[in-house]
């Protein structure tokens, strides 16, 4: 479990919950139902294969108290197909998001400030045609929103999409692998004894 330094369990902050499960239909519904029952809004959700073969990783962010995130973790782990759930604060993980912005090509050509903002934010233009330019920006949420706000203030944004968060822990190994190895050792010991 994450070591969260907090003076109170009642202050609300952003938590990232990593859930690992076997790739079985209906698990996502079971997980989101835990949030619905507790009336906690999911800010972002990303589901992908993990580094452990046959295991999927759900990356969920939500604002809640430490007490609530502990309860959510506990309730999620009670789902039969969930292998493990852990929660983290941003300092405990490496995180990233990706975004795409579509901006007006005529407006971009008419205002040199647009290209300056794109370069200043470390974004890249991935396509340009006479109607629009597509811009990709990866990084932390704040960096992506800063680019969006700067371009939006110029009135050139036609569309904007942002992925859910992806993250890895700061440890050297996938914590799920250690958990599964312990579980297998316990299972073998019980069969032998």
Rg, rounded, reads 21 Å
- Gross geometry: elongated
Main beta-sheet annotation: 5 strands, antiparallel
Which segments are poorly predicted (pLDDT under 50) over 5 or more consecutive residues?
1-7
- CATH architecture type of the largest domain: 2-Layer Sandwich
Derived from helix and strand composition plus strand pairing, the structural class reads alpha+beta
Distance between the termini: 30 Å
Average pLDDT, rounded to a whole number, is 88
Structure description:
Helices cover 36% and strands 36% of the residues. By secondary structure, it is α+β, with helices and mostly antiparallel strands. The chain folds into 2 domains: 13-88, Alpha-Beta Plaits, CATH 3.30.70; 94-166, ACT-like. Chain A, domain 2 (Alpha-Beta Plaits). Strands 5, 6, 7, 8 and 9 form a 5-stranded antiparallel sheet that branches. A 4-stranded antiparallel sheet has the order 2-3-1-4, sandwiched between helices. The protein is elongated, with a radius of gyration of 21 Å.
């Amino acid at each position: 479990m994450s070591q969260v330094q907090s003076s109170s369990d009642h202050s609300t902050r952003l938590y990232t919950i990593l859930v690992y499960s076997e790739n079985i239909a209906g698990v996502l519904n079971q997980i989101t139902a835990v949030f619905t029952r507790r009336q906690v809004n999911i800010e972002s959700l990303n589901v992908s294969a993990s580094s452990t073969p046959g295991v999927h990783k759900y990356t969920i962010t939500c604002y809640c108290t430490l007490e609530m995130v502990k309860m959510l973790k506990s309730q999620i782990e009670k789902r039969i197909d969930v292998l493990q759930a852990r929660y983290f604060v941003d300092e405990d993980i490496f995180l990233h998001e990706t975004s795409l912005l579509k901006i007006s090509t005529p407006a971009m050509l008419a205002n040199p400030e647009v290209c300056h903002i794109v370069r200043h934010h470390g974004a890249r233009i991935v396509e340009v045609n006479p109607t629009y330019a597509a811009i990709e920006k990866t990084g932390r949420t704040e960096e992506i929103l800063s680019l969006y706000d700067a371009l939006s203030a110029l009135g050139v944004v036609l569309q904007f999409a942002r992925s859910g968060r992806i993250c890895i822990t700061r440890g050297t190994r996938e914590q799920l692998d250690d958990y599964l190895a312990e579980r297998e050792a316990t299972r073998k010991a019980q069969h032998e004894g």
